[in-house]
Amino acid sequence: MSEVYFSIIVWTADTNVEQFKDMLESIDQQDYRNFELYILDNNKGNELELIIKEFFPDIVDKVHYRRLKKKNGGAYAYNIGIHFSEGNHLIFLGQHDRLSVNTLSTFNDKIQELEEDAHIIYSDHDELVGLDRMNPHFKSDFNKELFLQTNYIGDFICISKALIRQIGEFNEKATVSYIYEYLLRAAFKKIKIAHVPSLLYHKRTENKGMTKEERLAATYSCKEHLALSLSYLRNEGVSCDGRIDASLKKWHVEYDSSGFRRFGGDYMFLKENNVSLFTRNNVKKMYGYLCQPDVAVVGVRFLGKGFTYDNAGYIFDENGAQYPAFHGQRIFRDTYEGLGSMARDVSFVDSGCCLIDAKVYRMLRGFDTSLSGRDAMMDFCIRARAKGFRTVVIPNCIAKYKNKTMKVWKPVTKD
Length: 415
Description:
3 domains, Spore Coat Polysaccharide Biosynthesis Protein SpsA, Chain A, nine-stranded mixed sheet, seven-stranded mixed sheet
């Protein structure tokens, strides 16, 4: 791949000058120097322009300042930056936030690995309170089901110019959720969304409670995010509704399962005799998720001994090691970022209880008969994922093994 030239785009409005200087300092300290900076200013006066010239006296040709006459929001400002930027990759940075010294070099390394020209990259981040870095947010690789319920990626992203040529610019109708809408648009078009597991971004925040005005703004933001999530699902033909969470950090997508038939031929319900279900209408709940056209398998949460998780699905790493998600954690304590109580894409589900799309089962010619139990399910889910399907675990269906033993498991269909 050719050398990466970054355009760092910053929109400023109601700017804290000292925190803005802190942001500029983090850009000036980058160990990768092949970049330009574009400041799009919605403040009154030219104070920021003077500060920029003080910070970058020697590379003025790579630092651009533009006053915006219209106050049409962040999406409008970013689109102006996209139009004038010369970089082949664009980074959108908050006016008061900071970058790690190796952010650009790490992104450059990741870009060199990617085969796709059109892509989005995001990283982990922590929070900057005064001079202190705290509350690290370690994120999963792109997880569509999780992303439909919360913007865990955040607003710090790097996108390629090739992607902009393919799917367009930011949607200016989205008042506060234009980054989320762009990520949704890319996800539903099956664009590569890559994750860099490193704390490369430091988001400025204040360690205090929300005022009444801030809570109203957060409520509006949550509702707008939910509306976008539902809109994209409905455009795919998925019947759904939703509600925002009291935390104002996530929302709940409720899939319509009214088309469920107890003995329908479009799904296969598999359950071992050794498994007990503690919740009601389980198959119907699972069916709602299975109605998404890209979902092949839906699994449930399994309890272990002493009110702990046995697993909420399984994940595996690049070396093939398998991990039962949240194993051993107390069910009455919140899991990391609340993920244990949210539906999520997983590598594969527990073979003890799941629902499978019958069309996908036939397409993949069923399970590998040389395998059994968890190995058979893992193999099936891997093959389904290779075909572009997802495997989802939903935590509001709860099961438990009566006597968990490693025994031969044979899939049983019910139609």
